[in-house]
Design a protein that fits this description.
InterPro entries: PIG-V/Gpi18. It is built from 19 helices and no strands.
Length: about 400
């Protein structure tokens, strides 16, 4: 790069650089989405060759649309064999409420409004993610971490009618506030975040571990009792918010298990209707996919590999707090989630790990990784988003 260009580049503020990354990445993703939409056949959500907004609101986007327009059922649907069927209670109200508000204000329909909200949230997330990474990484690494976030294989969801973009915005803000130790400001963020995507319980565990770590190291990093009580209280609040949505579903429907029964309905296509047993779903999924004993061994190997990964120098570079969040969220997923094709989407809140992937400074490395992730976008769109007949790989 000529010296004059380097000088001009240095004059661009950090937010300008992040903004350029975001715009370019959205253009690339939009092009990929439009190519796939041009060959999409008629399906349960759209006609053949749908426009961008309609194509971006398939799958769970339709459920969020139902919530925004019709709300939640007071009577749970019952299948022919007497079990709770799939219904809107699986989809939290934060995102559809924001989209609905803008629909009322603007008069615009659901599809383009949902895309707009997701895009706006993704820009906010990119800006906050840079600030978050700058707490633990140098400028170049933080900026490349933003690139990785914006071109990641599941980054198309940042401009689809899904709640992930809004949730990541709130989560990034919450993590940044915690690193700044502004605990009280976490309260409103957690309140909205926990009603946008299931996250309150994982964040409560994270806060509890953060408090324990700070208390253990208070000799070298003072942790006044008042501050500790505040942080612990916020952890309790997060736990309460993590249970709020199941409680609301109980109050409205009269069934204490309304929310969990609804969630279990989605995994019934794989393993039938079963009780929710914490820490069993990954092993059930492993057996379903790979059989016995390979499925069990694969899950155990995955747990060991993830644990070792958390102690590698690259991951340690993102700092203790962000590692505690990733570990807390991973434990939450291990406890309650049944892995299937949606597992990649459920891993998105572990995005602080991109700070570790962004560490190498080699230009060749960074170009190759960026191109591989863009190829990953196309692969995910083909496998999980596009609908081909009786598709059983929901995103």
């Amino acid at each position: 790069m000529p010296a004059r260009w380097r000088a001009r580049y240095r004059l661009v503020p950090w937010w300008g650089k992040v903004g350029v990354i975001w715009v370019l990445s959205r253009l690339v993703t939009t092009a990929l989405v439009l190519v796939l939409a041009s060959v999409q056949g008629q399906n349960a959500w759209t006609a053949a060759k749908p426009g961008y907004a309609d194509f971006a609101n398939m799958w769970d986007g339709r459920w969020y649309n139902i919530v925004a327009v019709s709300g939640y059922p007071a009577v749970l649907p019952i299948t022919l064999d007497g079990h709770i069927g799939e219904n809107a209670w699986a989809f939290m109200p934060g995102y559809p409420a924001v989209v609905r508000l803008l629909m009322v204000i603007s008069g615009a329909p659901w599809a383009p409004t949902a895309v707009f909200v997701s895009l706006a949230c993704s820009l906010g997330t990119a800006l906050l993610f840079y600030r978050l990474m700058r707490r633990v990484q140098p400028h170049s690494t933080a900026l490349f971490a933003v690139v990785l976030f914006c071109v990641a294989p599941l980054s198309p969801l940042l401009q689809f009618g899904y709640a992930e973009s809004m949730h990541l915005l709130l989560l990034t803000l919450a993590l940044l506030l915690l690193l700044q130790r502004r605990y009280l400001l976490l309260v409103p963020v957690i309140a909205v975040m926990a009603l946008t995507r299931p996250s309150g319980l994982a964040f409560a565990l994270f806060l509890a571990l953060h408090v324990a770590f700070r208390w253990y190291g208070r000799a070298r990093d003072p942790f006044p009792v008042r501050e500790a009580v505040t942080a612990a209280s916020v952890a309790v609040f997060s736990g309460v918010m993590g249970l709020a949505w199941p409680g609301i579903a109980w109050l409205v429907t009269g069934s204490i298990t309304a929310y969990t029964d609804t969630e279990l309905a989605w995994r019934s296509a794989y393993i039938g209707y079963q009780e929710l047993v914490p820490f069993a779903a990954w092993f059930q999924s492993g057996v379903w996919w790979l059989g016995q004993p390979l499925g069990i061994l694969a899950v155990l190997a995955l747990i060991v590999s993830f644990t070792l990964l958390m102690f590698t120098p690259a991951v340690k570079s993102i700092g203790v707090d962000l590692r505690l969040w990733v570990a807390s969220y991973a434990l939450y997923l291990l406890a309650v989630f049944f892995p299937q094709s949606s597992v990649f989407r459920l891993l998105m809140p572990m995005f602080p790990l991109l700070g570790a992937l962004a560490r190498p400074r080699s230009i060749v490395y960074r170009v190759v990784v960026t191109l591989l992730l863009i190829c990953g976008q196309w692969g995910w769109l083909l496998l999980c988003w596009g609908v081909d007949g009786a598709d059983w790989t929901p995103p």
